[in-house]
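User: Can you help me understand a structure? I only have the sequence.
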Amino acid sequence: MNQKITVTIITLNEEERIKDCIESAWQVADEIIVVDSLSTDKTREIAKSLGAQVVEQSYLGDGLQKDFGVQFAKNDWILHLDADEYLDEQMIKEIQDINYAETAYDAYAFRRKNYIGTRWQKVWYPDYMIRLYHKDRCRFSPMIGHTSLTTNNYLRMEGNIIHYSFKDLSDYLMRTAKYSKRDAKVLVESNRKISTWDPVIHGTASFVKYYFLKRGFIYGLDGLNASLLGALRSYLKYAQVIEMRQNAALTHPD
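Assistant: Let's start by predicting it. Here is the structure, written out as tokens:
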């Protein structure tokens, strides 16, 4: 590797997964910064024992939280990982082989393999994520919900981020309720116009995208599950916007 890299990781009660994430990150990093959202388990202790620098910061929202650790980085190039993500061998080699001194790109995107339990959800693949970037040229968008790096000058690589996000289908359903509500709050705060048909339109469009356009049907039950779950999250996001506005109207009538 011809360039030193800082890996940033955001955490909240990740004692079960942080060890594997940090050990994977050390294969490309010479510095790891963990930004912890005031965990009540042993996340911070485990991270420190593995050589990571730990910074405590109450949760600012996904984008601002991911950017927070960059100010402590001693290196120009940053690789961001979530605590439930790991690097495969191809991704490690690609990161090590980049000529950072002469590259024309501001960032690099990698494919992500998303798992529910032990099952790789192929219908969601490749799910490219821009994660390796020059800190002076890129920033995560300051969103409360799921954010992404904002740059058009990036290169797609062939390596994979291994993402063990959900323990099982029940875990996915519980977190879908949480995340869709968070996404709905963003839409409410933006004053975006939402019709009563939007939950159905967006939910149906999501199912069609994954099950038919991305050929989820060829993956059997896994493909059907992934398509239905994606549709459910989209449906709930818009349904909860309508619910929030109706509740607000009842609480604060004109």
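Now, to help you interpret it: Strands lie at 5-11, 31-36, 53-56, 77-82, 85-87, 107-116, 119-120, 129-134, 154-166. The domain at 5-166 is CATH 3.90.550.10 (Spore Coat Polysaccharide Biosynthesis Protein SpsA; Chain A). Let me know which part you'd like to focus on.
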